[in-house]
Amino acid sequence: MGRLFGLILGLIGLSSLCSALCSQILPSPKPDLPSSASSTEPYLVGAGSCSASGCHNANGHSGTKGSEYSTWIASDPHAQASSVLGSDRSQKMLARYLGKSANTADPQKEPVCLSCHVFPDPTLNQGSYTGRFSAADGVSCEACHGKASQWVSAHYQESWKTLSSAEKSKFGFVDTKNLAIRTRTCVPCHVGEKEMDVNHDLIAAGHPRLRFEMGSFLANYSSRHWRQTDEIARDPNHSWNIWTTGQVITTKAALELLSYRGNQKTKPWPELSEYNCAACHHSLSGFYGNLPSHGKMLFGTWSNLSGNLPAYSPLNSLWDKKAKEDLGSLTRLMVKIGSHRAEVGSLAEKLAKKLDHGTSHLAPPPSPKEVRTWIEAYEGSIKENKINPNWDQDTQTYIMLRAYFQHARDLKKEVPPNLENHLGELQDDLTSAFQTNTNSILHSPENYDSKLSRKWLQKFGEDLR
Fold first, then answer.
1. Domain count, the chain
2. pLDDT bracket for residue 28 (50, 70, 90)
3. Is the distance from CB of 400 to CB of 457 less than 8 angstroms?
């Protein structure tokens, strides 16, 4: 009996050893990929599917693995995207936008609000949610990572890690580690697109202007549930590449939105949100003489649709000669404020198709000498009145220099000691343009003196010598 018991234990041990060895030698089986013929469309399962303490609700520090849900629910503004629709301010804003009384306007049922403040999809009106998803989830896990019905039970398996990004996408999973895909996930709400359009009417009703730039958005996203060190380990040029990626994809999104606006016969035209705010929203006396508009409509100053770009814009290498001519034509049409709606829509559509969503815009960051050469040329253009800077353009220049500085710091490269201080002082000047207003989000930066550009460009040029 003792021998038999020992033999059984030996066989069990041998079986366990074989299983252990096989698991080391043989690849884990991949989850079955849904076939396009038989699979159903992915659907929303709700943030509650991620909330188990053993999954993503470990309640650790922001950025620690397993604390993604607790970080989102505790400190991510996206978690409040739905609840804010129930505020008195939202109700009054929608009433002004629709021309209704405040008592009859309901942002929690209005498609124009739900299309971004709940899972960003204009087809998901109230009552059309599936699974355990509800409007109270707001902009949650699936808004970024994709509808989870087909991957929620697979993504924690070891075999999931063996799948390529393309294979995971067949489950409806969105690869947000890819900077281009991540930016494309953000722009529908933060830049706008068809049926998700924060136009001038909505801004006039009280909605903040959509002033989006991917690099600064992520830099200020203190509640992110991933580690910056992991990003830099995957891509040492991360801080520079997120700027270049954002520039290309947000410009493409802005062109697609302009095309949509131009091709809609029933929407307001001209669409005033396409223009520089301070061109209209400024004092009519005194400081007005320092403003760059001189009574003209300034088109595309934030989204770079005018083609007046810094030398290191990744768009420069993507626009061919014909595209640059088309950009000039687009600007002339928009400045005329005439009945050129269809022509604008056609031009914008053609230009949007020229921009690549992939990685062709990723290029090595410039050297200090190259940046200094650009600064000197840009300063010269301002001095000769070839360029009349404004708050939008100077802010974009600041963001580019900040990305350059952050990239050098990520790689522990030596940077000019005054550069960070001067960048901080420029940021203060850009911010102070709003200081006289009670709500900087809703007002124009009319107090910005565009003459500051040359002062700061000279300082940066000296810093980089």
1. 2
2. very low
3. no
- 8 A C-beta contact, residue 50 and residue 44: no
Q: Does residue 84 lie within any of the structural domains?
A: yes
d(CA 410, CA 16): 46
Q: Note the pLDDT of residue 333.
A: 92
- Cα–Cα distance for residue pair 14/25, rounded to 1 Å: 16
pLDDT over 50 at 234, yes or no: yes
176 Cβ neighbours under 8 A, 6+ residues apart:
144, 145, 182, 185
Report the predicted TM-score, pTM, of the whole model to 2 decimal places: 0.86
Rounded to whole angstroms, the Cα distance separating 127 from 373 reads: 57
For the chain, give the percent of residues with pLDDT over 70: 83
pLDDT, tens digit, 9 for 90 and up, residues 404-444? 999 999 988 888 888 889 999 999 989 888 755 455 444 67
Q: Is residue 29 part of a domain?
A: no
Is residue 180 one of the residues assigned to a domain?
no
CA 15 to chain centre: 52
Return the SS3 of 304.
coil
Percentages helix, strand, coil for the chain (3-state, rounded to 5) are 50, 0, 50
What are 299's strand-pairing partners? 275
What is the b/e burial string over 180-214, where b = at least 16 CB atoms within 10 angstroms of the residue's CB? Answer: bbbbbbbbbbbbbbeebbbbbbbbeebbebbbbbb
Q: Please name which of 360, 355, 362, 357 lies closest in space to residue 238, comparing C-alpha atoms.
A: 362
The answer to whether residues 326 and 350 touch, using CB atoms and an 8 Å cutoff, is yes
> What type of residue sits at position 405?
F
Whether 455 and 351 share a structural domain? yes
* Per-residue pLDDT at 26: 38
Residues 309, 251: Cα–Cα separation, whole Å: 12
Short-list 44, 54, 68, CA closest to 120: 44
Taking the C-alpha atoms of residue 465 and residue 463, their distance in angstroms, rounded to an integer, is 6
432-439: which pairs have CB atoms within 8 A and are 24 or more residues apart? 433/391
Could you tell me the end-to-end alpha-carbon distance of the chain, in angstroms, rounded to an integer? 88
| Domain of 58, in residue numbers | 48-157
